[in-house]
Amino acid sequence: MTRLAPPRAGRDLDKVAARASHARGRPRSRRYIGMLYAAPTAVIVGVLFLAPLALVVWMSLNKWPLLGQARFNAPENYTKISDDPLFVDSVFFTLKYTLIITVLLSAVALGLALLVQNRRPGVTFFRTAFFLPGAVGFAAASLLFYGMLNPDFGPLGFMDVKWIGTPNMALFSTIALVLWRFAGFNMLILLTGLQAIPVQVYEAARTDGASRWQTFTKITLPLLRPTIALMLILSITGSLLAFDQFFIFTNGGPDNSTVSMVMVIYRNAFFRFDLGGAAALSVVLLAALVALNALQLRVLRGGDK
Amino acid sequence: MAKRFSAAIAAGLLVTALAACGGGEQTEGGASGAPDSGTTITMWTRAATQAQSQRLVDAYNKSHKNQVKLTVIPIDNYQPRIAAAAGAGQLPDIFAADVIFVPNYTSQGLYLDITDRIAKLPFKDSLAASHMKLGTYENRMYTLPHTLDLSVWFWNKDLYKKAGLDPEKGPTTLKEFAAQATTVQDKLGKDGKVHGTFFGGNCGGCYVFTFWPSVWAAGGQVMNEQGTKSLVNQSPMTDVFQTYKDLYAKGVSGPTTKEEQGATWTGFFPKGEIGVMPMPSTTLGSMPADMNIGVTPIAGPDGGQSTFVGGDSIGISATTKHADAAWDFLSWTVGDEAQVEVLAKNKDVLARTDLASNKYSEADPRVVLINSLVAKGQTPYALRFGQTFNDPQGPWLRFAREAVFGDPAKLAELNVAIDKSLAQS
């Protein structure tokens, strides 16, 4: 039924087009109208995505100064990537951070979602409260934590804890910040998935005498799988591109222990003015992300069958 | 369809490329007619020297038809903002910059060549020499001194008196500095609020500004003259590190020294919590009026005097369309009236040595002292200064932190990283 719809609609469109312009030939006007419909999207994608992307790839093949003429030097920007110990370290750090934050964020978000999934008195209050940190801009949230944990003037600074003074504490504090900021948002994603599970399935399970744990592992989790997959993709991609929290909150410190990949790109472009090198890193990171997302989507589809 | 689509991309790319190339055009100055004909001039400066820039701009706007529109940018964001604006061809007409970044900016072609304009200034030989040297690239001049910020030792006379030290005698060597700080700590530090000294232990620029003058005072150097090779792994730099390392280990330096990233390092002294510490001279004017503060030059381990002649230089951007109007403002800021009636009146250090003693500075001997240090101090030159010494991810901060808080065995390897960063082409 749905498969038949487009040709028919196309023929209707033909008639409309033919009626509208007797003088001109039919196929041409049809082609123009189609292009007209697609034009706004094509322009936006072209100007805001494809053109910058092509420019970045071109930059990565050149020595690119702030002002003046670029000089073609491929593949130097790519071959020198492995010479930069800061970037190599940042790859490992970013992967470590992504792993920790994805596991914790999923667990906390799922816990919160299960707590507030049923309609009970006061549940709206808690849903709002859990989601509220997500309404704070991430840069502002990072500054907020920086102030709150500052040993000199922060309200939590009086405790004799070096919140961002050692590598492990800096990572721990950042994870606390990210959990606070993003758990509510991920809860919301999971909540929509939970609400989409038909009540009848639960009722049937109850009739069959399934325990709470069995209901959770045999019904809730499998039916929630696509939603969890979506959350994982968002969380992993977001964590691999982490920047604000480390740039503002820990400043990459102490002793470069919390430098993420995007921070290295930023540093190369705007502190070292090595625009070509930064572009090369961006291209590599983009390729890795595309591959990773493709893999994740494939695993997700495989699970659906 | 595919062909048309790629044509559209090509068109889009062309637009982007043209926009990018637009930044590279050199605009001929003088297109805007008379220098003071009501032009609006845009200017950027960083927050560190906002007060001085604002006073200069206000005074100029009041007495001229041209109007300068000042934008102040947070210190940490200044370099990236300049880089982004330059890449997009959107630099303001005038921008100030931390003087140590200037060699890099001139080598990138961001500033307009003003050699001939400077040559016509009657007082050109009295302009602060270190700032002028860093603004010269391949024998052409690009910048003027805008604000000067010198590192000096401040000591708190009230705390000295309480600790039984002579309040009128500040330290004259780094060893005396350490001894006096230790006395303040021992006598007054029991409440946990007062500390002997303080420094920015997680801030590359702070180390440079406050530690290096002790090296120069001892007759040493931190880099070779071309700024391509590091000497920070040698005496007297190592002796200076050792002194501060001992102070921190003994708890004489405030407990947050190691974490201090630079945003708040000058905040403790005005609260009356620190006995003696290196401070920027620009903060003298904003110290509490009821606090008795002594100012003395930074010394080496066994004497000598020096200072880091920091602050901002200012130049006209290479892409401006109002070069004449911009120069009208720039040349006015280093003229007699602006220097004396705007800067000297507020206890600021002057950009010209011939005006060092004037009717305002003579009222405060500390200001005379600071002004006299301009000739004794240094401003280090390196093309890759910012990324090596100021950048939090740069190699110098790792080096300094290992030297003061960590493991001396790692220093040799980290010094190689500094060399590599300095020599980057």
From TrEMBL, chain A:
- Annotated ABC transmembrane type-1 domain residues: 91-296
Report the membrane topology from the UniProt record.
Multi-pass membrane protein
Q: Which GO terms describe its biological process?
A: transmembrane transport
Which InterPro entries is this protein grouped with? Answer: ABC_transporter_permease, MetI-like, MetI-like_sf
The answer on whether this UniProt entry bears the keyword Phosphoprotein reads no
Q: PROSITE patterns, from UniProt?
A: ABC_TM1
| Compartments (UniProt record) | Cell membrane
Q: Which GO terms describe its cellular component?
A: plasma membrane
Q: Would you indicate the residue range of the signal peptide?
A: none
Check the record and name the Pfam families matching this protein. BPD_transp_1
Q: Where are the transmembrane segments?
A: 34-58, 97-116, 128-149, 169-191, 228-249, 269-295
Keywords, alphabetical: Cell membrane, Membrane, Transmembrane, Transmembrane helix, Transport
> From what superkingdom does this record's organism come?
Bacteria
Its predominant location is: membrane
User: Which family does this protein fall into?
Assistant: Belongs to the binding-protein-dependent transport system permease family.
Name under which the protein is recorded: Sugar ABC transporter permease
From TrEMBL, chain B:
UniProt keyword list: Signal
Q: Which domain of life is it from?
A: Bacteria
Question: InterPro entries, from UniProt?
Answer: Bact_solute-bd_prot1, SBP
User: What range does the record give for the signal peptide?
Assistant: 1-19
Q: Which Pfam families match?
A: SBP_bac_1
Presence of keyword Signal: yes
SUPFAM superfamilies linked to this entry: Periplasmic binding protein-like II
Q: Which PANTHER family match?
A: ARABINOSE-BINDING PROTEIN-RELATED (PTHR43649), DIACETYLCHITOBIOSE BINDING PROTEIN DASA (PTHR43649:SF12)
What is the protein named?
Sugar ABC transporter substrate-binding protein
